[in-house]
Backbone:
């Protein structure tokens, strides 16, 4: 999706050229799953897929929204009055951008209106964070147009608030921070407790490697409730162990912590996943920093086993991607995102990816599943102004 197309469409819709065009990417999480609401570590990188928004200011308290991706671009413009914006009052896609405007105004920033047209290449509901891309592109556009001077991590926080409170979706801080803060050729090592971050060089092409995203295109229905259950179970574990968050359970003290949890098998499994997963993020960071990129493969695969067996959020389609990829020469593979569908990632030698993709497609056909969408994920730039 280019700036010119979005500019042209904006001009048709609103009768004047936009003041600017911004872009914000979707993301894939390399490692660190279900750690963000436990104050832990995550390591996403930005995709080349992105939401692009053309935006102009208004002074009359009106917000006009249009997405080129709804009903083939023929949908009407939605017009909202800023003084009527209220959490969970919109139940369609406009809740995401409206929520961002609401969150900015709630935080005391004077926004007097906007015209917005956007279009996105981030697949929706594939665990690649099309929602965060949408939020962050609006937040950055308004930040720049209204001269708010907000730091990227702050924009991410406001977007998270928009999603949690206005849309009503309980999500951690990873997605918005990734979209706002990632850098090309890097993965973002983020401490979700204090939002401190480090850019870790992650240039796969230079090493003869590729990372594939395999979007299974399935979304098992119970995913929402299961997320809530896992979250509550983690909180219970932290309370039983007397810590603020599971982040505070050191890897070296894991066995002792599990022994203290006794026979609460469910909580034991959740705690074990979170503590070992934080440790896996740290291992991946140190391997990448010492140039041992291939060695992260088995760590990714261990992460998958932990999500499947301990956190129990995988599904037959995701397991099939991982098993088939590993049986066909992948260095590592795991599900990524919330679970119960969505996408898996596969790390492989560049020379192996064609064979591997074919093997995954064939295994899906043989199992009677819809053939997944496979694409290469090149670590790309975070949110930025295009024109
Ligand atoms: P994910 O973030 O994993 O893609 P979510 O359910 O969190 O999945 O967010 C998807 C929702 O975001 C869509 O249902 C839609 O409401 C909104 N959305 C994403 N991209 C667009 C777009 N290009 N145009 C309009 N709405 C979008
Ligand atoms: Mg989302």
Residues:
């Amino acid at each position: 999706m280019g700036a010119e197309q979005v500019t042209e469409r904006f001009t048709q819709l609103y009768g004047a050229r936009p003041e600017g065009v911004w872009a914000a990417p979707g993301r894939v999480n390399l490692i660190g799953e279900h750690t963000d609401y436990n104050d832990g570590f995550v390591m996403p990188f930005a995709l080349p897929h992105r939401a692009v928004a053309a935006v102009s200011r208004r002074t009359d308290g009106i917000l006009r929204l249009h997405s080129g991706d709804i009903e083939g671009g023929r949908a009407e413009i939605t017009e909202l009055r800023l003084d009527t914006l209220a959490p969970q009052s919109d139940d369609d896609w406009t809740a995401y951008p409206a929520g961002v405007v609401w969150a900015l105004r709630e935080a005391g920033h004077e926004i007097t209106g906007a015209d917005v047209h956007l279009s996105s290449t981030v697949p929706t509901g594939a665990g690649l964070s099309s929602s965060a891309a949408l939020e962050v592109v609006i937040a950055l556009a308004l930040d720049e147009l209204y001269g708010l001077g907000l730091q990227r991590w702050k924009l991410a926080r406001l977007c998270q608030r928009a999603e949690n409170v206005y849309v009503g979706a309980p999500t951690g801080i990873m997605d918005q921070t990734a979209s706002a803060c990632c850098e090309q050729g890097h993965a973002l090592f983020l401490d979700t407790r204090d939002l401190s971050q480090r850019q870790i060089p992650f240039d796969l092409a230079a090493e003869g490697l590729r990372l594939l995203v395999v979007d299974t295109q399935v979304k098992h229905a119970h995913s929402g409730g299961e997320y809530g259950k896992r979250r509550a179970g983690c909180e219970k574990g932290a309370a039983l162990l007397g810590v603020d968050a599971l982040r505070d359970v050191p890897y070296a003290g894991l066995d002792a912590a599990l022994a203290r949890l006794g026979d609460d098998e469910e909580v034991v499994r959740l705690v074990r996943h979170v503590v070992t997963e934080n440790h896996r993020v740290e291992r991946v960071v140190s391997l990448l920093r010492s140039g041992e990129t291939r060695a992260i493969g088995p760590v990714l695969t261990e992460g998958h086993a932990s999500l499947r067996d301990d956190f129990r959020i995988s599904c037959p389609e995701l397991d099939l991607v991982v098993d088939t990829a590993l049986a066909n020469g992948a260095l590592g593979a795991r599900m990524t995102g919330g679970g119960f569908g969505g996408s898996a990632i596969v790390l492989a030698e560049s020379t192996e990816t064609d064979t591997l993709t074919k093997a995954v497609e064939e295994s899906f056909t043989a199992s009677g599943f819809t053939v997944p969408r496979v694409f290469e994920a090149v670590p790309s730039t975070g949110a930025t102004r295009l024109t």
Q: What stands out?
A: The mean pLDDT is 96. The pocket of magnesium ion (ligand 2) is lined by residues 129, 131-132, 175 (CB under 6 Å). The longest helix spans residues 265-289. The radius of gyration is 21 Å.
